[in-house]
C-alpha cells in the first residue's frame, strides 16, 4: 500500500508518500508545492493540481489521505484553504483513487498521542517513526506524512472514517 498524505495550503501544500508492506512503514517521498505570494490564487490552485497530478503519475498510490478542513475564525481563509484542498484532491478523484479525510486533532493524536501537539512535536515523531535522516523537511511535509501515517494506522485498527462520521 502506498498512501499520499496531503497538507493543503494556498502558498505551501505539503505532501508525503508512505509505503506500508508486511508491517513495515517507510517514507517513499516528501516535499512541498510552493507558490509565491505574488501569484494569483487561481494560478496557485493550478500549480497544486499539477503537482499532485505529477505525483500520482509517478507513483502507484493506492489511497490519498488529506487533512480535513477545520473551522476558521476568518471565512476568507477557510474559503482559500477549501479551494486549495479541492485542487489537491481532484487529481485523485479523477483517477478514482480513494480519498480519506482526517482532522488535525486526529492526526496529532495518532502520531504524537495528544490532539494539542505542536508542529515541532509532530515533525519529531514523524522523523522518528519513519527513520528520516533528511534535515531539510518542512513542517508542511511532516504534517502530510503524519496524515498518511494516520490513514495507515486507521486501516490497521479498522478506524477509517471521515470527519463527518467522527462528529
Q: Would you write up a description of this structure?
A:
The chain has a five-stranded mixed beta sheet with strand order 3-2-1-4-5. The two termini are 28 Å apart. A hairpin with a 2-residue loop joins strand 2 (12-21) and strand 3 (24-34). The chain is an alpha/beta fold and 167 residues long. The chain has one domain (2-166): 2-Layer Sandwich (Nucleotidyltransferase, domain 5). Helix content is 47%, strand content 22%. It has helices at 41-58, 75-94, 104-111, 119-129, 139-156, 163-166; strands spanning 2-7, 12-21, 24-34, 63-67, 99-102. The protein contains six helices and five strands.
Helical fraction: 40-55%
* Gap from first CA to last CA: 28 Å
The general outline is globular
**SS field, number of helical segments:** 6
Element pattern in H and E: EEEHEHEHHHH
The percent range for strand residues is 15-25%
Task: Give the total of domains.
Answer: 1
CATH architecture designation: 2-Layer Sandwich
Rg value: 15 Å
The largest sheet, given as strand count, sense and whether it forms a barrel, is:
5 strands, mixed
In the CATH hierarchy, the third-tier topology is known as Nucleotidyltransferase, domain 5
Amino acid at each position: 500500500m502506498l498512501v499520499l498524505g496531503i497538507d493543503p495550503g494556498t502558498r505551501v501544500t505539503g505532501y508525503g508518500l508512505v509505503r506500508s508492506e508486511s508491517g513495515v512503514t517507510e517514507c517513499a517521498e516528501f516535499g512541498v508545492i510552493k507558490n509565491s505570494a505574488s501569484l494569483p490564487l487561481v494560478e496557485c490552485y493550478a500549480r497544486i493540481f499539477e503537482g499532485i497530478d505529477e505525483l500520482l503519475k509517478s507513483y502507484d498510490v493506492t489511497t490519498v489521505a488529506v487533512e480535513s478542513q477545520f473551522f476558521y475564525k476568518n471565512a476568507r481563509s477557510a474559503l482559500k484553504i477549501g479551494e486549495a484542498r479541492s485542487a489537491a484532491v481532484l487529481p485523485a478523484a479523477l483517477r478514482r483513487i480513494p480519498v480519506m479525510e482526517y482532522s488535525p486533532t486526529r492526526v496529532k493524536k495518532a502520531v504524537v498521542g495528544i490532539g494539542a501537539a505542536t508542529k515541532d512535536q509532530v515533525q519529531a515523531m514523524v522523523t522518528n517513526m519513519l527513520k528520516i535522516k533528511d534535515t531539510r523537511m518542512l513542517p508542511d511535509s511532516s504534517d502530510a506524512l503524519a496524515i498518511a501515517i494516520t490513514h495507515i494506522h486507521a486501516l490497521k485498527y479498522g478506524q477509517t472514517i471521515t470527519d463527518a462520521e467522527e462528529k
